[in-house]
Amino acid sequence: MADNGKKASAGKRLLAVLLGAALLVLAFSAYFIAKILNGHNDTVLPASEPTEETVKIPEEAALEEEVREPAETQVDYFTDEDGTVIPDYETVDENEYDPALFKTEGGRVMYDSPEARYGIDVSSHQGEVDWNKVAADGIDFAIIRAAYRGYGQTGSLNEDEYFRKNAEAARNAGLSIGAYIFSQAVTTDEAVEEAEYIISMTDGLTLDYPIVFDWESITTDTARTDGVTSEQLTDIAAAFCERIKKAGYRPAVYLNTTQGYLEYGLDRISEFDLWLADYGELPDFYYKFNIWQYTNQGTVDGITGSVDMNISFKNYAG
Q: DSSP assignment of 190-203, as one string?
């Protein structure tokens, strides 16, 4: 009877250990699932793309972030007090923005710094924009979609039909401007092609703000980018930025927290400016970024419907 009791006790201890291990695995899995489903912090939604079956451009609501396998690097990871898993880069500057300097007024987030500037990003999704009204409503800059690549197998490059009109009208209204391309590049050659395409489109324009690489996963359909690895994605972004830099412009990479922590190798692109999408009243990204997109539900005079709102932490036009 005593031996049977010891066996029963040992069995209970083994069961408890196995149960604890299973709960730990479930908790870790739940974290990554939450990162995918959390639309405010981890869904990249800078601007919707028109539905064109020939080039397969997604609607805004169809854009969701997909966690890719992290690149095989020697980077260690740590967990912060909120349970977020973060890569430990020794060579990447940390986020040093003071939380006490952020405040929300009239639905807009402000940062108490003389360098801070307030802006929007737009595409053909916004339609006709009255840029004089936009400027009068406290907007300092606009990052305007110049082009997009389709996610179908042909991956054709297309000009945003409103780009030139928006860029010229925004400048005439006194705003500083930048430009971005919605990328679906799958090779570094395609990244360079995209860079040269947008460079040709901005000829004759004065750009104070960066030319931005905006690469997103398509999760609602089969896409040409489905097989792109994190290492390849980092190579693609770096190739785009290097070509933009060579042409004399300032390059930047648009990313959300999931991409920043798990997809891009930040140590390889941190020399370029980063435009972070992290929706809320405070950005909690661990590493340094230069522009923060804090909502896709902003309202601005002169624009019908919602628009993305941004804070630039440095005055590019200064």
A: HHHHHHHHHHHHTT
Residue type, 54: T
Is there a contact between 65 and 43 (Cβ–Cβ < 8 Å)?
Answer: yes
Look at residue 237 and tell me whether its pLDDT is greater than 80: yes
Asked if 115 contacts 311 with a C-beta cutoff of 8 angstroms, the reply is no
Query: If we measure between CA atoms, which residue out of 50, 38, 81 comes closest to residue 256?
Result: 38
Per DSSP (E only), the strands in 106-195 are 108-111, 117-122, 141-149, 157-159, 176-183
* C-alpha dist (Å) from residue 145 to 73, 89, 121, 164, 183: 33, 31, 8, 10, 11
Q: Is residue 102 part of a domain?
A: yes
Q: From CA 288, how far away is CA 121, in angstroms rounded?
A: 21
Q: What is the DSSP code (8-state) at residue 210? A: P
Which two structure tokens, joined as six digits, stand for 166? 């928006």
| 285 contacts 276 by C-beta, under 8 angstroms | yes
Look up the CATH number of the domain holding residue 289: 3.20.20.80
Residue 103 backbone phi and psi in degrees, to 5: -150, 155
Q: Which residues pair with 177 in a beta bridge?
A: 142
Give the Cα-Cα-Cα angle 312, 45, 154 (nearest 5 degrees). Answer: 120
Count of domains for the chain: 1
pLDDT (tens digit per residue) in 176-221:
999 999 999 999 999 999 999 999 999 999 999 999 999 999 988 9
Instruction: Note whether residue 70 is domain-resident.
Output: no
**Position 318 confidence tier, pLDDT thresholds 50, 70, 90:** confident
Distance from C-alpha of 278 to C-alpha of 257, rounded to nearest angstrom = 7
Q: H or E stretch including 237?
A: helix 230-246
